[in-house]
């Protein structure tokens, strides 16, 4: 299985990238590729820019990565209750090329934050909207109080209850 995992964040210190990376490592039989949204930075989307630029190669490349995968893990950072600007901009460009951005792939949606809600708001937004864009949402999980529940040095989720939930969520991709 070709598994594509990424954080919907451009932070170089993204806890969601750490979570997506760890989650991707939980499937032994998967060939996991971790993407960095910083590799897909595009001008701010507008119809005027689209008329001027057409469809940028980086958006096409991102869609090609999705198309070449069998399943996805996406971990969402939350900015003001919604998507990060970096993710939303890339998504907007991609959706102009194909409104079925996620190409009917099975997807596990995650979120993490240092706070008690763990990015629940953005996870709810993503869970509700992604099926309209071709995602088959298999499972969702929010990890609250990330720094108390994740060992940054070892790169593993240390909260056993949350870890069991994450393993169960990722196994839905098999």
Automatic annotation (TrEMBL):
Q: Which residues form a coiled coil?
A: none
Please indicate if the UniProt record lists Flavoprotein as a keyword. Answer: yes
**Which GO cellular component terms are attached?**
cytosol
Q: Which UniProt keywords apply?
A: Flavoprotein, FMN
List residues of the NADPH-dependent FMN reductase-like domain.
Answer: 1-142
Superkingdom to which the source organism belongs: Bacteria
Q: Which cofactor does it need?
A: FMN
**Which Gene3D superfamilies does the record associate with it?**
3.40.50.360
Give the InterPro entries listed for this entry. Flavoprotein-like_sf, FMN_Rdtase-like_dom, NAD(P)H-dep_reductase
Could you cite one Gene Ontology molecular function of this protein? oxidoreductase activity
Q: What is this protein called?
A: NAD(P)H-dependent oxidoreductase
* Originating species: Candidatus Thiodiazotropha taylori
């Amino acid at each position: 299985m070709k598994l594509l995992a990424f954080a919907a964040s451009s932070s170089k210190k993204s806890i969601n990238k750490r979570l997506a990376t760890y989650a991707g490592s939980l499937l032994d039989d998967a060939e996991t590729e971790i993407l960095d949204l910083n590799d897909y930075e595009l001008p701010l989307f507008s119809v005027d820019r689209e008329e001027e630029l057409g469809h940028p190669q980086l958006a096409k490349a991102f869609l090609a990565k999705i198309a070449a995968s069998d399943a996805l893990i996406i971990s969402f950072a939350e900015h003001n209750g919604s998507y990060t600007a970096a993710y939303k901009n890339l998504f907007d460009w991609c959706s102009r090329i194909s409104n079925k951005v996620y190409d009917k792939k099975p997807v596990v949606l995650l979120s993490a934050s240092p706070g008690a809600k763990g990015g629940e708001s953005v996870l709810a937004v993503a869970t509700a909207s992604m099926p309209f864009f071709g995602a088959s949402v298999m499972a969702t999980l929010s990890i609250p109080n990330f720094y108390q529940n994740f060992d940054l040095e070892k790169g593993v989720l240390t909260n056993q209850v949350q870890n069991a939930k994450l393993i169960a969520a990722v196994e839905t991709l098999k």
